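Bump. Still looking for Tle cognate immunity protein 4 C-terminal domain-containing protein structure tokens.
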Amino acid sequence: AGLCWKDYFIADDMTENRFFLSEAFLFFPSYPEVMMNIENRARDESDTPIIQMIQKNREQIPEELKRVFKVSDIRSGSREINGLKGEEVLTHYQPRLSFGRGFESGVWQYLGTLDNPKDSYIYVGLKGVRDSIDKENSSISQKQILQLNDFVLNNIKISPFNQGK
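Sorry for the wait, here they are.
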């Protein structure tokens, strides 16, 4: 195991329990509005299950902002990806004051194990609209965005080293 950075590989047997963080941003030529990010890091004591955190954050949204978008969950619950039991929330945001289709935003989170660096935290985020293009409406269908999200999630693999092999 280790860390890849450009043309270099830094070997790390992960026995010293050092905090680490790696993040990748994915952009897709066929879906120019969609951005995904994948975060992999050491588990932290303050990490909260994603569904619990989203519910808490939604309760704190000011009423003025709730009037701008109609928020509806497409999927919310447990989701296992290649043996990793995580949580997923996919949400559709529909602008209330326009006739646009809105956009999707989502997250899948695997908390990992606090005291085991070989079982690290994984976060995959999806945003179906780029701020630089259109902040409220995606021209890509919800079906296509969900298919892309599922394709990326279903291709997450854990190295044999981290599986204890």
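The radius of gyration is 18 Å.

Edit: fixed formatting.
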